[in-house]
Design a protein that fits this description.
Blueprint: E1 2-11, E2 15-18, H1 19-23, H2 30-37, E3 41-44, H3 51-66, E4 75-79, H4 90-97, E5 105-108, H5 114-127, E6 133-141, H6 151-154, E7 159-169, E8 175-182, E9 190-191, H7 203-207, E10 214-215, H8 217-239, E11 248-251, H9 256-266, H10 277-280, H11 287-297, E12 306-313, E13 317-324
Parallel strand pairs: 4-5, 4-6, 11-12
Antiparallel strand pairs: 1-7, 2-3, 6-7, 8-13, 9-10, 12-13
Helix pairs in contact: 3-4, 8-9
The structure holds oxa(dethia)-CoA.
Oxa(dethia)-CoA binds at residues 28, 32-33, 36-37, 112, 151-152, 155, 190, 217-218, 220-221, 224, 254-255, 258, 282, 312-313.
């Protein structure tokens, strides 16, 4: 029995914010944003659009693409750090909206590594027969927790959702190897300080803008390159696969300079690396499923190709999954 990815879907909010729009909002420039990050535009959810709304659209497409009945789905997982509410979970909201059976639904919080963590969890649930068909989404509305007065962070993030349907089948597994990690001692380098039980929302926390993303970018940058390179190398070793055998490397899209540094360390040519940062910006847990969706639809990967997914994010969390697509 093997775990197959049967279908994939995605959704990006309609509104687009360009670097030139940001020039009018904070002291920045298109030139700085493009050269330091690779970002040109980002999608921004509407005021009345929450993360579940994005997931529902991506999930509907993934279910159609998978050619299954919604009743086949017996587990719903949403990876996000921007849930509709702390509770009920975004996954439960999605389950109701899609009219699924009363199957388990849960959110996971692993920031930009959320989709990788989700794939590894779904793989475990399917392989141990706890689940037979999992709907997994990586989705964010990061612009809702972005400080539009802070030029260090507001140019970096975007919104979107990607979803996949995974099923236990008689065929060989699509998930060949995985590697996942966390280092909570570095959590403060990338954090939304207020709003949880450590610092509940008060007038003061709002005035001090503590409900927004805070990041020590330069520090995070160094760790991201090291952890992503190590994890990608490790998962290839675990599978006994050489980097030259990969059809495509799909890294988390946080910064083109991080992507380039990891690509060089793996010894991959540029045409084997998926880049979507210019059009999606950093969409945290949604970045890898959105990039995977584009890779499939642009014909960059076909069934049977080896595809390596690697992410790094807040927590810190990081990890990789090697797929035979
Ligand atoms: O998603 C998972 C985790 N996230 C990441 O992996 C992100 C990792 N970090 C990064 O991508 C980069 O560190 C950033 C893009 C966030 C920042 O780039 P950097 O090259 O590390 O810039 P910096 O923070 O060292 O700042 C360099 C200069 C500073 O000016 P001074 O002090 O040298 O005068 C900043 O104030 O650039 C300035 N700066 C800006 N200038 C124009 C920072 N943000 C901006 C901006 N526009 N938006």
């Amino acid at each position: 029995m093997g775990v197959k990815i049967l279908g994939i879907g995605s959704y990006l909010p309609e509104k687009v914010l360009t670097n030139f729009d940001l020039e009018k909002m904070v002291d920045t420039s298109d030139e700085w944003i493009r050269t330091r990050t690779g970002i040109q535009i980002r999608h921004v959810a509407a005021d009345d659009e929450a993360t579940s709304d994005l997931v529902i659209k991506a999930a509907r497409e993934a279910i159609t693409h998978a050619n299954i009945q919604t009743d086949d789905i017996d587990t719903v997982i949403v990876a996000t750090v921007t849930p509709d509410h702390f509770f009920p979970s975004t996954a439960a909201i999605v389950q109701a909206a899609l009219n699924l059976r009363d199957v388990p639904a849960l959110d996971i919080s692993a920031a930009c590594s959320g989709f990788i963590y989700g794939l590894i969890l779904a793989n475990g649930l399917l392989k141990t027969n706890i689940s037979k068909c999992v709907l997994l989404a990586g989705a964010e509305t990061l612009t809702k927790i972005t400080d539009w007065q802070d030029r260090n962070t507001c140019v970096l993030f975007g919104d979107g959702a990607g979803a996949v349907v995974l099923k236990l089948t008689q065929d060989d597994s699509d998930i060949l190897a995985y590697d996942w990690h966390a280092d909570g001692s570095l959590g403060e380098l990338l954090i939304q300080p207020a709003g949880g039980s450590r610092m509940p929302a008060t007038k003061e926390t709002v005035e001090k803008r503590l409900h927004y993303i805070k990041m020590q970018g330069r520090e995070v940058f160094k760790h991201a390159i090291r952890c992503m390179s190590e994890s990608a190398t490790k998962v290839l070793e675990l599978a006994g696969v050489g980097a030259d055998e990969l059809r495509l490397f799909i890294p988390h899209q946080a910064n083109i300079r991080i992507i380039e540094a990891v690509r060089e360390r793996l010894g991959l040519p540029q045409d084997k690396v998926m880049v979507t940062i210019h059009k999606h910006a950093n969409v945290s847990a949604a970045s890898i499923p959105l990039a995977l969706y584009d890779a499939v639809n642009e014909g960059k990967i076909e069934r049977g190709d080896l595809v390596l997914l690697t992410a790094f994010g807040g927590g810190f969390t990081w990890g990789s999954v090697l797929l035979r697509w």
